[in-house]
Amino acid sequence: MTTAAPPAPPAPVELFDSHAHVDGPEFDADRDEVLARARAAGVRRIVVIGAVGEPASAERAVALAERDPHIWASVGTHPHDVEHMTPAWWAVHERLALHPRVVAIGETGLDFYYDHSPRQVQAEAFVRFLDLARRVGKPVICHIRDAHPEAIAILRDHNAGELGGIIHCFTGTPDDAAAYVDLGLYVSFSGIVTYKTAQPIRDAVGRVPLDRILIETDCPYLAPLPRRGRRNEPAYVVHTAQVVADCAGVPLDELAAATVANTCAVFRLPPP
Fold this sequence. Notes:
Low-confidence stretches: 1-9
Number of helices: 10
Shape: globular
Number of domains: 1
CATH topology: TIM Barrel
CATH superfamily: Metal-dependent hydrolases
Distance between the termini: 45 Å
Largest sheet: 8 strands, parallel
Number of strands: 8
Strand content: 15-25%
Structural class: alpha/beta
């Protein structure tokens, strides 16, 4: 007697990791393998964020995007580090902002949780990066932590909705999420949304229309459950996508298709 072959496993849904730091030294030993695992998991496209520490991060992100047609870069300086920016540092960003593989400015913004740079310096740099984004016609990626009222005021004053922008790794309240949507911005959810203590962030998903939701890893940080405690990587974004889909009340494939379309829209990329 013959037995039927088991059914083939379902093909992975297509996903877009809108915020990853795979240019960093954490991936120097196995970057090619990490990218191969991402594609095997359905993560076909990635935006690499060149904004960690000195502008060498921006240079690395752009170099990686130049080598891979499915990777794009952003350039900026994290609010932790803006206190140390020099005119030469700013000049690197001014130059790279015009690069054809650079699709956004950032991450920039306000982090009043750690206060690694003085708050006024953070605000001044945030405004300057918003101005740079407007001059080059590209959206802005915003890191906001414990500073949502201040960030909302700056973004409103500078018409960020017209510019286009993303609140990456959202960690605010549902009302904060709704305020960013009212400004015309996108809200991106990271692996934090899977954590047991993150119910307010899960509640915030329901305040963001499906056509304004993005997903990300922020790798190598913030690995989602059940990968928490490991180095994060783009392949793991599927776990975040499933939780966001559950919170939004839609199937995973619908959430995946929407977030790919949204990410392409905000970064002005052609749909896959």
